[in-house]
Amino acid sequence: xxxxxxxxxxxxxxxxxxxxxxxxxxxxxxxxxxxxxxxxxxxxxxxxxxxxxxxxxxxxxxxxxxxxxxxxxxxxxxxxxxxxxxxxxxxxxxxxxxxxxxxxxxxxxxxxxxxxxxxxxxxxxxxxxxxxxxxxxxxxxxxxxxxxxxxxxxxxxxxxxxxxxxxxxxxxxxxxxxxxxxxxxxxxxxxxxxxxxxxxxxxxxxxxxxxxxxxxxxxxxxxxxxxxxxxxxxxxxxxxxxxxxxxxxxxxxxxxxxxxxxxxxxxxxxxxxxxxxxxxxxxxxxxxxxxxxxxxxxxxxxxxxxxxxxxxxxxxxxxxxxxxxxxxxxxxxxxxxxxxxxxxxxxxxxxxxxxxxxxxxxxxxxxxxxxxxxxxxxxxxxxxxxxxxxxxxxxxxxxxxxxxxxxxxxxxxxxxxxxxxxxxxxxxxxxxxxxxxxxxxxxxxxxxxxxxxxxxxxxxxxxxxxxxxxxxxxxxxxxxxxxxxxxxxxxxxxxxxxxxxxxxxxxxxxxxxxxxxxxxxxxxxxxxxxxxxxxxxxxxxxxxxxxxxxxxxxxxxxxxxxxxxxxxxxxxxxxxxxxxxxxxxxxxxxxxxxxxxxxxxxxxxxxxxxxxxxxxxxxxxxxxxxxxxxxxxxxxxxxxxxxxxxxx
Length: 648
Prior knowledge:
Elements: E1 4-13, E2 16-26, E3 31-35, H1 42-50, E4 57-62, E5 68-71, H2 83-88, H3 95-108, H4 114-129, H5 132-145, H6 159-172, E6 177-181, H7 189-201, E7 205-209, H8 213-219, E8 222-227, E9 230-235, H9 238-271, H10 274-279, H11 282-297, E10 318-329, E11 332-343, E12 347-351, H12 358-365, E13 373-378, E14 384-386, H13 388-393, H14 400-404, E15 410-413, E16 416-419, H15 420-425, H16 443-455, E17 461-465, H17 473-485, E18 489-493, H18 497-503, E19 506-510, E20 516-520, H19 523-557, H20 562-568, H21 579-606, H22 609-614, H23 616-647
Parallel strand pairs: 3-7, 3-8, 5-6, 6-7, 12-18, 12-19, 14-17, 17-18
Antiparallel strand pairs: 1-2, 1-4, 8-9, 10-11, 10-13, 15-16, 19-20
Helix pairs in contact: 3-4, 5-6, 9-11, 19-23, 21-23
């Protein structure tokens, strides 16, 4: 039996049908990803399913008694409430009892009067009758599980903290169906990985709107796509959806081409006039009228954003050089003894949790913030475009045209003069939207506007702080392609793992306590390097402890009596090293050293960012060889330990 069904649903804003007689079903245990272009109606659909939005027409049914929880894209809570009060307030009839009980317990710490104790006893009795203790325990466990401070005020939390509170509140309901709208927004990488685990372990059904492809691959068992008012279902992974969708679009293009060709032929026939009237083929005329109506009703697939980056004047070869740079704020060290050299054309990703100091490090690199110690040397002829600065500068009441080109109807880009309406059209804004205020835009449309404003300015150093939030998958892929070909220098702060892997050539990673380290490649390359380092440390510990373990084993096996001691020194023929094994043991240290030297040379080569840009094939070959060396060294180490213990 399904948890929820939607039949013949219709929803339109103006003349655009967001939902055009769509149907869907959600079964228990499903993990469904809802995707689609910005403005296609995904959030409106989710609101309708959650009961906070209204459909124009259609039937929505949910299983009687089923509990549904909805987390909007931007949760809004009372800033003066504590985390406990916020979570408990969403639990139905028992909410006020829980809030009163929690407040009374806190007051009793300062006022243990008989009146307060009597009030607490009455609340305990009421909670017992309302099954409130079980719900209270559930709230406490949820807060503990998500490492939240129950007494912290909502107003003190970051965007990621507020998103965690919203998710905790939803899960405290123990819902049968969880509806999530862009839950990865504002979460750092650790938070996204935490959310992946949470959803995979969740026993109920999940419907989530997301454009994070790595997150989507990790959690989805089915993909729902909202495309031109229709809802299409694709069982399986996101990769399977991409293949099927590509095939469908190719078939659709062929079918429309055949239709348009046939329509053109019929239009030629009807324009002959005399021949058409002579043949008196009324059926053919009626068919042509039907073809015209069908063509007029066709909804074309929304085009792609036309992204273009103007680099401007070429900067100097050196962009920035940092030597033993440190920066503190009060007692906290944000950057500790960090050194790096950044050259023109480098594409650098900054990876770290929220609050690690990524923005501070960027400002140090760009010379916008002086270090407490160390030296920063900047290159010449730098034109910096900073994505994040435009978010705070957007005037909600300004029109889109005013945001792009204040006081003028034209804009100069790469030596070409463009009308602002035409330029906005390249970012999928219809001409009639050019005079709309910024406040009317959705999250994805706002980000497209920010990109349009950013790319209208020439720059040879580009700083993008979370540019992927709210962008649909097609625009993400186009932005990736643009940044890959961008000849200037790029600094990218993002929690989108696939976007990092596809764009950056090197990463600067926060490793705690103000320590930052530079790695070649993107997120997955950093994970691989970290795994190799951990494996190397384990191997070194094993080498260090092997002789001690062998000595301890030998001592434990040595009998106390002299006779037994004499007998123990006479080894059995099967345990004694042969001549060949003795020679092998003597040669093993040199063989391991040679392989480790080769490994070190490859590791050094892989740290060169230019390798990935100029010779990606060699980079892949070196990565494969590095993996082979890991296995070979590990096998030789195990062989050495075995022979060493037998020769002791």
